[in-house]
Amino acid sequence: MEHHTQSTEVTFHHEPGEGTKRIWKTFWILLFITVIELALGFTMYLVPDMPHFLVLFLKGVIVILSLAKAFYIVSIFMHLGDEIRNMIMTIVVPLMLFVWFIGAFLWDGNAWRTNRNRY
Q1: Quick check: helix, strand or coil at residue 30?
Q2: Are residues 101 and 54 located together in one domain of the fold?
Q3: pLDDT, tens digit (0-9, with 9 covering 90-100), for 49-75
């Protein structure tokens, strides 16, 4: 009995948890979307004689992919994906209004710039 030692320390074997899988899944999804965005951007750069409607379409796709990436980043890293709907709307609705205000002010500023010499 005299060779036994007692310790109050509790140790656990470390096992990679579910959080690691979620991080890697997030990494691969964001990487995939980013590669698609870069491929579309390089396509627009390398083909200079592309029709105007196709350029606008590709830019729209890039904007939509960027918004999807932003939504996914906010959902995962800010943990809004785990929140209740009212909390999400409390954050998202003012943000959408802010983005709308920026667009409206840019539109109005451009209209003022183009029409200021006409009247």
Answers
A1: helix
A2: no
A3: 999 999 999 999 999 999 899 888 888
